[in-house]
Amino acid sequence: MTELAGKRKTVAQLVGVVLFMGGLAWASVPLYDWFCRVTGFGGTTGVSEVAPDEILDQTIVVKFDASLERDMPWEFKPVEREMVVRIGETGLAFYEAYNPRPYPVAGTASYNVTPYATGGYFSKIQCFCFEMQVLEPGERVLMPVTFYVDPEIVNDREAKFANHITLSYTFHVTDMPEDYGQEEQASLAPAQPKTELN
């Protein structure tokens, strides 16, 4: 009887360990994403609603890079390859995207900055990467990103030596939203005649 109870206890413990490890695996991706956003680890940039009040005389070069996932049919490139901004100053850059396909293509952009140590000090106020983009057949668009480099970068023992930051975007194909085009179709639909009640 005690041997059977011991086996049940061992099985219960093993099931508990498996469930615990499964829970950790499930939570690891969002936890890692959160960690990267908070610390700037791996070149993850910050997000801010407003620019800082302080603007330093010190400048930094911001370079812009663009790439596409293998199956993404768009053309995608930065309008300017680099710009010089003062630390704390709001910068505005544009990327150009073009859909050469005869059908709409949806995409989302992943991004990071290098050197990685600067990630926690590079913040975006507004960015096309915050939401999915859909380009119609033959559509060419300019997509803005508004950003700043936090003045606190000059106090970081590693990041303060960076004389440039490279902001990189990669566009990935995204499934088209199910409701895409319904508003346009509704506006083109013929109006239904009104019936009067007697």
Structure commentary:
The protein is α+β, with helices and mostly antiparallel strands and 198 residues long. It folds into 2 domains: 2-39; 43-174, Ctag/Cox11 (Ctag/Cox11 (Pfam 04442)). 23% of the residues lie in helices and 35% in strands. The chain has 2 helices and 10 strands. It has helices at residues 2-39, 182-188; strands spanning 46-47, 59-68, 75-78, 82-86, 91-98, 105-114, 122-127, 133-135, 140-149, 164-174. The strands form 2 sheets. It has a 5-stranded mixed β-sheet, with no helix packed on it. A 5-stranded mixed β-sheet has the order 4-2-10-6-8, with no helix packed on it. The termini are far apart. Mean pLDDT is 81; it is low at 27-43 and 184-198.
How do the strands and helices of this protein lay out in sequence?
Layout: H1 2-39, E1 46-47, E2 59-68, E3 75-78, E4 82-86, E5 91-98, E6 105-114, E7 122-127, E8 133-135, E9 140-149, E10 164-174, H2 182-188
Parallel strand pairs: 1-7, 2-10
Antiparallel strand pairs: 2-4, 3-5, 5-9, 6-8, 6-10, 7-9
* Number of domain units: 2
Broad structural category: alpha+beta
Major sheet details:
5 strands, mixed
Number of strands: 10
Key structural traits:
single chain; 35% strand; 2 domains; alpha+beta; 198 residues; Ctag/Cox11 (Pfam 04442)
Write a compact overview of the structure shown.
The chain is of the alpha+beta class and 198 residues long. It contains two helices and ten strands, in the order H-E-E-E-E-E-E-E-E-E-E-H. The protein starts with a helix and ends in a 10-residue tail after the last helix.
